[in-house]
Amino acid sequence: MSEITQHERLTGPVIHSPQSKRVREAAKLVRRSWRTKTRQFLAEGPQAVREALSARAEAVSGAGADDRVDASPIRLVDLFATAAAADRHPDILELAERAGTPVRQIDPALLAQIADTEASQGLLAVCEFLDVDLSSAISSGSRLVVVLSQVRDPGNAGTVLRVADAAGADAVVYTGSSVDVYNPRTVRATAGSLFHLPVVTGADLAEVTERGRASGMQVLAADAHPPVHDLHSPWATGLDLTRPTMWVFGNEAWGLPEADRQLCDAAVAIPIYGRAESLNLATAAGICIYETARNVRL
């Protein structure tokens, strides 16, 4: 094995051994049971790591002289990088310095064993869970909240969170029957948006919709079964999309069960103008979320 040179901007010594405690603990985070036990997850790749560090650095710089840095809601337990990744992303090293997070140099082959992707990009962070409780995520000032109920695909779950972030949503809520938001595939699909807005996990849909109404929001089910409002002509049936809105999206295969739909105030369908039988969940969610985002800004 060729010797790996210590990078001048990375914390040494270089981690070579798969028996390293840090490496073993990180590797086990691909399992949901271990993530739940430790309340930690993996953020992989430059985009996710950059956003985690940016949020951490902002919290640190905003702390008063007497505040502890560890009070930040974004905590990075460990940050690993290869020498090549450090050279490619000097901005990430600068962010890490601002955030007070040491970047540990690791053997590329060893990092590839920990990473969940086939081709590691040389950066991997171990972060603490950052979900919040329902009462702090949804308030009387909330204008747009997205709820995923029984959504099982990690890519869809992450993509919808990313869209919600882009549309300026106040929070994203995952019910207890949905995929784990800290699944590595879900985290990657959020493209860093997981670190931008409040996220609630393991929620009960009845409690969520009740909270939404109590906060002054209308609760809309994205559902095509009649009776429904047409998303592109809501005024025809009296639906006001300029109101604060909570959108509820169901499972990729069967949508929302009748019991879940009954928890909502109304159902809304996206018109299909071509021959497609339906829309992918993430695509449908994006259309609905942005339609509300546009209207609440009118």
TrEMBL record:
One Pfam family here: SpoU_methylase
Entry-linked InterPro entries: Alpha/beta_knot_MTases (IPR029028), MRM3-like_sub_bind (IPR053888), Ribosomal_eL30-like_sf (IPR029064), rRNA_Methyltransferase (IPR051259), SpoU_MeTrfase (IPR001537), SpoU_subst-bd (IPR013123), tRNA_m1G_MTases_N (IPR029026)
Alphabetically ordered keywords of this record: Methyltransferase, Transferase
Entry protein name: RNA methyltransferase
Keyword match rRNA-binding: no
GO BP term, example: methylation
Gene3D superfamilies, sorted: 3.30.1330.30, 3.40.1280.10
Sequence ranges assigned to domain RNA 2-O ribose methyltransferase substrate binding in this UniProt record: 42-133
One GO molecular-function entry: methyltransferase activity
Family: Belongs to the class IV-like SAM-binding methyltransferase superfamily. RNA methyltransferase TrmH family.
Top-level division of the source organism's lineage: Bacteria
